[in-house]
Amino acid sequence: MDLISSRRPALRALAAAMALLLAAPLLQAQDKAILMASTTSTEQSGLFAHLLPAFKAATGIDVKVVAVGTGQALDMGRRGDADVVFVHDTVAEEKFVADGFSTQRKAVMYNDFVIVGPASDPAKVKGHTVAAALGKIGSSGAPFISRGDKSGTHAAELRLWKAAGVDMAAAKPAGYKECGCGMGPALNMGSSTNGYVLTDRGTWLSFKNRGELTVLVERDKVLFNQYGVMVVNPAKHPHVKAALAQQFADWVTSPAGQSSIAAYKINGEQLFFPNAAR
């Protein structure tokens, strides 16, 4: 056996060790990533495009976002398909914690809902309370586009119809249409049909295809829209990256994260208002 042949096993072992050393930083970088289930409003408003690079710069952690309705996002957390959830349905979030799928819910920020509709306002809702406006829309038969997707916005909409005295389970108004879609597509449908839509203000401010739509009902206290963040409980799903997810929850509610949220504006108008310290 020549000298080279006799050393081949050692050379192969050395090459394998070097490959592992070279791969280690890449593997470590891949490990420093979490999956977040969140609402379409945080994604479509452009907030995450602003917020997540700041979080990565502070921590080195990548965040992959799956933007769905709040109900679907919470279901992902229940199944262990996400490491952290960032949503806006306080009642459902508190149940998520009570059922043991997270150990803590943290308030992060708020904005508000508005009712948009055609400037011609066929149901004559402008300037009215939400309850009065929905009553007028329902009785007029004017088109109303509902997300119909069990999202936080959809849950809020159903509560508002109920407060307006409209029993959606018994009979939906003549013009009521459910799209089973996110906020952006619902607004597109509203724009194309000159229908009324309940939307979060953040998505509305970033929405471009407005057509004849304009804000008609706003500033009613029942339109308050709170967002919260929850780390999925590793006691339920041991595979979740709870430690990394906790870093996100801690950062987004820290002074640095809260300042980053407050700094996000479109045409000089702030979309979300941090309130973790309230």
Automatic annotation (TrEMBL):
Stretch forming the signal peptide: 1-29
Keywords: Signal
InterPro entries from the UniProt entry: ABC-Tungstate_binding, PBP_domain, TAT_signal
RNA-binding listed as a keyword: no
SUPFAM superfamilies linked: Periplasmic binding protein-like II
Residue intervals of the PBP domain: 29-255
Entry-linked Pfam families: PBP_like_2 (PF12849)
Gene3D superfamilies assigned: Periplasmic binding protein-like II
Keyword Transcription regulation: no
Protein name as annotated: Extracellular solute-binding protein
The species this protein was found in: Ideonella paludis
Taxonomic lineage from the root: Bacteria, Pseudomonadati, Pseudomonadota, Betaproteobacteria, Burkholderiales
